[in-house]
Amino acid sequence: MFKNAIIYRIKANLPDLSALEEALQKETFQPCGATQEQSTGWVPPRGEAHGALVESVGGQWMLRFHTEIKLLPTSVVQKRVQEKCDAIERESGRKPGKWEQRDLKEEARLDLLPQAFTKESRTWVWIDPQASTLVVDTSSQAQADAAVTSLVECLPPGFALALLNTQTSPQAAMAQ
User: Fold this and answer.
1) What is the DSSP code string of 9-78?
2) Beta bridge partners of 118
3) Strand pairing partners for 56?
4) For the chain, how far is it from start to end, CA to CA, in angstroms?
5) What is the pLDDT of residues 144-167, one digit of tens each?
C-alpha cells in the first residue's frame, strides 16, 4: 500500500482516536470553488461518503489527505493578458503600464479558473500510537509538510512532531 515513507516521531500529546476524528472534522475536504486555485482537507480512508476520517486497523490509525489544484498553463494566461492589453491599446491608444498589466494578469487568472483542469492527489497518513510514529506516504517533502501542517493545525495546542533523522541516510543504506 505505501510506496514511500517520510517518518515523523510524535513528541507529545497524541489525542485518542475519537478526539482525533472530531478534530479532523474541522478540516474535511471541500472541492475547489469557481475562483479557488487549491483546496485541501481530510477524506475517509476507504472512500465511503460520510465515513470516518480516521480508521483503526489492528491498533494502527489510517488517515487520507486530499489535495485538489486547478491547473492554468502560463501560456494561456499570457495569451489572455496580451489580448486584454491589445484591446486597451486599440480603444485608448496607449499601452498598459507594468502595474496595469499585473492587474490584468490577476483578472485573466480569475476569468480562466472556472474552466481550468483539476489535478487531485491523495496522501496516506499512518499513525502508530504505541510506537509514537507518524508515516506519510509520499516522496515529496512539500506534500508531507502540507498533510502534517493540516494535522497539527486541527489538533489542540501541544501536539508536536519531529522528522525522524538517522545517522545513515536511507539512500546510502540501500546503496550499500
Assistant:
1) EEEE-PPPHHHHHHHHGGGB-----TT-SEEEEEE-TT--TT--SSEEETTEEEEEEEEEEEE--HHHHH
2) 70
3) 61
4) 25
5) 999 999 999 998 888 889 888 888
* Residue in 125, 1, 151 with CA at minimum distance from that of residue 55: 125
Model pLDDT, residue 9: 93
State how far the Cα of 77 lies from the Cα of 131, in Å rounded to an integer: 49
Three cell numbers written together for 52: 470516518
pTM over 0.85: no
> Measured at the alpha carbon of residue 123, what is the angle toward residues 8 and 163, in degrees to the nearest 5?
15
Query: Nearest-CA neighbor of 6 among 153, 175, 170?
Result: 170
Highest mean predicted confidence (pLDDT) among 44-53, 134-143, 160-169: 134-143
Name every residue whose Cβ is closer than 8 Å to that of residue 61 and which is 6 or more positions away in sequence. 17, 20, 54, 55, 126, 127, 128, 129
For residue 124, what is its C-alpha cell?
496516506
Using alpha carbons, select from 150, 144, 176 the residue that is nearest to residue 163: 144
| Average pLDDT of the residues of the chain | 89
